[in-house]
């Protein structure tokens, strides 16, 4: 009965699977990056106008971190739905949640609006929280969409397609900000220009919805339904019977997250801060440094694609152990590279983002593979988003504190990255290889 039902179940075309998993995470990360960029460039003054520059930046980063606090809650909500009702409907819901919140940020009055001095930052926090809820369910669903529809022996390769959404979203968001900041006066950009990337996200969300509405449920979840193996409370099963992979999955992502948000938030702050500022930086103009970062992110995308075949050939665990060791070395050596002028800074960005692609790419396969099908959405989503708190939510604060403590030198920030990499290496060492295990028929 089960085999017959499974054989006759409709399946998704490979091209549609690849595009649907890629477009969703591209939109997701576009939404997230436009906030990350605005959090550094314009939000400190627009929403925290009465504070000194350092406090403004801390306030903006605090709101940035709210989404990471919300993400585990989103992973529980959408993970429960994904394991109970299916991947397709859950993916549509997560995309809408994040897309609507992003659009509304573009409509939000600033603190300079009469009567909004308190309401403006409060509403920003609420909308940022909603962004985090949506993001909490988006990544895991996209990863499952790709890997549960992948041909045999190609899960890691298919799992890299949703990972490509990160560099694509970054490039789209920052090109948008560069165009707006270069086309407008600083006054016009601060007044209304920053809103355009947020409002334009509505077009991308509609595209993502159209593609995802064409999908059918994944064969793996159809098999779970046919077997009557759907869990009533997936989170309870994960915590009680799959706690070890939940913890290891969280720490397997730690170095990835720390590297990612140091490169996209701290490095932007450090690169654009004036050399004579209270906390000195490199003094690059914003638009120039964003363009330099975009070059680095191209390497991010290229090495995401390289990571999939590497993880298929050598295994997820072995490949990631070597890559994470490289991250530890990078953190210890990036200070002399920063001191090498333009070439040195570009070396930091290119090497850092290349390592980011190599470590991020296999995660689309590794984390889902650590859990059985009927709790896979919940398990992979919760571990991924718990890592976001440990590795990303606190990263800007820790980096800013260490940056100030070292008198404007990034040396302690680099050692912080190296320390996170060592922790991840220990976690990976304790994780068993998942490349050759059963996947579609794996039901806990």
UniProtKB/TrEMBL annotation:
<feature type="transmembrane region" description="Helical">
    <location>
        <begin position="91"/>
        <end position="112"/>
    </location>
</feature>
<dbReference type="InterPro" id="IPR036259">
    <property type="entry name" value="MFS_trans_sf"/>
</dbReference>
<feature type="transmembrane region" description="Helical">
    <location>
        <begin position="289"/>
        <end position="307"/>
    </location>
</feature>
<dbReference type="InterPro" id="IPR005829">
    <property type="entry name" value="Sugar_transporter_CS"/>
</dbReference>
<keyword id="KW-0813">Transport</keyword>
<keyword id="KW-0812">Transmembrane</keyword>
<feature type="transmembrane region" description="Helical">
    <location>
        <begin position="409"/>
        <end position="430"/>
    </location>
</feature>
<feature type="transmembrane region" description="Helical">
    <location>
        <begin position="17"/>
        <end position="36"/>
    </location>
</feature>
<feature type="domain" description="Major facilitator superfamily (MFS) profile">
    <location>
        <begin position="17"/>
        <end position="435"/>
    </location>
</feature>
<keyword id="KW-0472">Membrane</keyword>
<keyword id="KW-1003">Cell membrane</keyword>
<feature type="transmembrane region" description="Helical">
    <location>
        <begin position="254"/>
        <end position="274"/>
    </location>
</feature>
<comment type="function">
    <text>May be a proton symporter involved in the uptake of osmolytes such as proline and glycine betaine.</text>
</comment>
<keyword id="KW-1133">Transmembrane helix</keyword>
<dbReference type="Pfam" id="PF07690">
    <property type="entry name" value="MFS_1"/>
</dbReference>
<feature type="transmembrane region" description="Helical">
    <location>
        <begin position="118"/>
        <end position="145"/>
    </location>
</feature>
<dbReference type="GO" id="GO:0005886">
    <property type="term" value="C:plasma membrane"/>
</dbReference>
<feature type="transmembrane region" description="Helical">
    <location>
        <begin position="382"/>
        <end position="403"/>
    </location>
</feature>
<feature type="transmembrane region" description="Helical">
    <location>
        <begin position="192"/>
        <end position="213"/>
    </location>
</feature>
<feature type="transmembrane region" description="Helical">
    <location>
        <begin position="342"/>
        <end position="361"/>
    </location>
</feature>
<protein>
    <recommendedName>
        <fullName>Putative proline/betaine transporter</fullName>
    </recommendedName>
</protein>
<feature type="transmembrane region" description="Helical">
    <location>
        <begin position="157"/>
        <end position="180"/>
    </location>
</feature>
<dbReference type="InterPro" id="IPR020846">
    <property type="entry name" value="MFS_dom"/>
</dbReference>
<comment type="similarity">
    <text>Belongs to the major facilitator superfamily. Metabolite:H+ Symporter (MHS) family (TC 2.A.1.6) family.</text>
</comment>
<feature type="transmembrane region" description="Helical">
    <location>
        <begin position="319"/>
        <end position="336"/>
    </location>
</feature>
<dbReference type="GO" id="GO:0015293">
    <property type="term" value="F:symporter activity"/>
</dbReference>
<feature type="transmembrane region" description="Helical">
    <location>
        <begin position="56"/>
        <end position="79"/>
    </location>
</feature>
<dbReference type="InterPro" id="IPR011701">
    <property type="entry name" value="MFS"/>
</dbReference>
<keyword id="KW-0769">Symport</keyword>
């Amino acid at each position: 009965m089960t085999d017959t039902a499974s054989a006759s179940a409709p399946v998704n075309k490979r091209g549609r699977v690849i595009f649907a998993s890629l477009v969703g995470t591209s939109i997701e990360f576009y939404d997230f990056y436009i906030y990350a960029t605005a959090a550094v460039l314009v939000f400190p003054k627009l929403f925290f106008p009465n504070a000194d520059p350092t406090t403004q930046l801390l306030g903006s980063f605090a709101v940035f971190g709210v989404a990471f606090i919300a993400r585990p809650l989103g992973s529980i909500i959408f993970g429960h739905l994904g394991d109970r009702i299916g991947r397709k409907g859950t993916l549509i819901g997560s995309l809408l949640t994040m897309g609507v919140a992003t659009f509304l940020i573009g409509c939000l009055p600033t603190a300079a609006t009469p009567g909004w001095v308190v309401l403006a930052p409060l509403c920003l926090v609420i909308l940022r929280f909603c962004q985090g809820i949506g993001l909490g369910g988006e990544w895991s669903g996209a990863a499952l969409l790709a890997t549960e529809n992948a041909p045999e022996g190609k899960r890691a390769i298919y799992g890299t397609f949703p990972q490509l959404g990160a560099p694509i979203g970054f490039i789209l968001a920052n090109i948008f900000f560069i165009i707006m900041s270069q086309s407008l006066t600083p006054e016009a950009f601060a007044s209304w220009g920053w809103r355009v990337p947020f409002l334009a996200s509505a077009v991308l969300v509609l595209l993502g919805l159209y593609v995802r509405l064409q999908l059918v449920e994944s064969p793996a979840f159809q098999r779970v339904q046919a077997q009557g193996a759907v869990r009533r409370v997936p989170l309870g099963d994960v915590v009680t019977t799959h706690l070890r992979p939940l913890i290891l999955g969280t720490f397997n992502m730690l170095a990835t997250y720390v590297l990612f948000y140091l490169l996209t938030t701290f490095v932007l702050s450090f690169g654009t801060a004036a050399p004579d500022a209270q906390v000195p930086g490199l003094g690059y103009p914003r638009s120039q440094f964003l363009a330099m970062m975009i070059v680095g992110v191209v390497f991010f995308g290229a090495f995401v694609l390289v990571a999939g075949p590497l993880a298929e050939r050598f295994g997820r665990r072995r490949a990631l152990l070597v890559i994470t060791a490289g991250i530890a070395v990078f953190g210890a050596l990036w200070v002399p590279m920063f001191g090498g002028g333009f070439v040195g800074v570009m070396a930091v960005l290119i090497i850092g983002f290349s390592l980011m692609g190599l470590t991020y790419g296999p995660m689309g396969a590794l984390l889902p593979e650590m859990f059985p099908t009927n709790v896979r959405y919940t398990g992979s989503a919760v571990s991924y988003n718990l890592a976001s708190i440990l590795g990303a939510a606190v990263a800007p604060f820790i980096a800013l504190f260490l940056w100030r403590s070292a008198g404007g030198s990034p040396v302690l920030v680099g050692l912080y990255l190296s320390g996170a990499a060592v922790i991840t290496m220990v976690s990976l060492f304790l994780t068993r290889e998942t490349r050759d295990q059963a996947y579609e028929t794996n039901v806990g």
